[in-house]
């Protein structure tokens, strides 16, 4: 039962930016990606919140990393723990603008990115519980456009993977 990573996307708040000013950006959903294996997204897109307010997704998902069925994910977790030069941002959250029903010619557009380092969770030996993480502008990685509140419970799975590394 420890062989999983539990992820929850609780809410999103935006600061005043090009995003809040852009009238074509109306509905937002959030995608969560583990490297290139797995992408999960909130089933709902919600109306873009005014600056200073939040929209609540309360979306939970589980990434299974057991040996039997999820070998690739597990090997990736091993590589995060063992390779110091691997980029640390192993979980990537993308805030995506969902075009309105009547504007189907518009594409979904990535407007911001937020990151959680599984390596850091392991180093600190602490899961991330209902924590605000910065959302960076997709067009300017130095600009923070908002905060995403997330939970990432990965420590037990990472410990299990780490134990296995020691035996390999």
TrEMBL record:
InterPro entries membership: C2_domain_sf (IPR035892), RPGRIP1_C (IPR041091), RPGRIP1_fam (IPR031139)
Molecular function, one GO term: thromboxane A2 receptor binding
Pfam families cross-referenced by the UniProt entry: RPGR1_C (PF18111)
Any one of the GO CC terms: photoreceptor connecting cilium
GO process annotations (BP): non-motile cilium assembly; retinal rod cell development
Superkingdom classification of source: Eukaryota
Domain RPGRIP1 C-terminal intervals: 3-164
Protein's name in the database: FTM protein
Annotated source species: Motacilla alba (White wagtail)
